[in-house]
Amino acid sequence: MKLTQQKRSQKNKWFRLLGLFSFLLLSLVACEQDDPFEDHIANRGRYLGVWQVTENTGINHPQFYSVNISAGTQDDEIVIAGLYNEPNTRVAALVSGNSITIPNQTTDGIFFSGDGSANSDFSQILLSFTADDGSGPDVVEAVMVP
User: Fold this and answer.
1) CA 2 – CA 57 distance, rounded (Å)
2) How confident is the model over 84-139, as pLDDT tens digits?
């Protein structure tokens, strides 16, 4: 009986090690490394300009408006003016390749966070963000086209 418990204990140990190894392997594969050769300024340039926004979800959907995306102070930063159809908002976002990240921030009294991605030819950006003006979070899915 004691031998059977030892075998089970060894099997459990191997399964735990295998699970841990699998988790670590998947973690390494799932992590996307920044391209050290990416030209951040050229990449950022693909986002700049006036974009037409269609909000498909959220409290005020459907909602249609324009935003102006300009260069931020960092090479990989953009500023989205007028997001959430609020003319005085200036939402800073970071870009890497086709990905956009909106870090937690407050502008014009509205809290923003979110992310998004541009398609391969930058003819469309899908943006998912949360806006909270103090009345509660509003989760918005939007499509932006030049």
Assistant:
1) 61
2) 999 999 999 999 999 999 999 999 999 999 999 999 999 999 999 999 999 999 99
What's the pLDDT tens digit per position in 5-35? 555 556 555 556 555 555 544 444 444 445 5
Q: What angle do CA 27, 28, 33 make, to 5 degrees?
A: 120
Residue 120: alpha-carbon gap to chain centroid: 16
3-35 b/e (C-beta count within 10 Å ≥ 16 → b):
eeeeeeeeeeeeeeeeeeeeeeeeeeeeeeeee
Contacts of 38 (CB under 8 A, 6+ apart): 96, 97
Q: How far is CA 33 from CA 12, 30, 36, 130, in A?
A: 34, 9, 9, 26
Supply φ then ψ for residue 62, to 5 degrees: -75, 145
Q: How many CB atoms lie within 10 A of CB 47?
A: 21
Its pTM stands at 0.73
The Cβ of residue 67 has, within 10 Å, a number of other Cβ atoms equal to: 22
3-state secondary structure of 101: strand
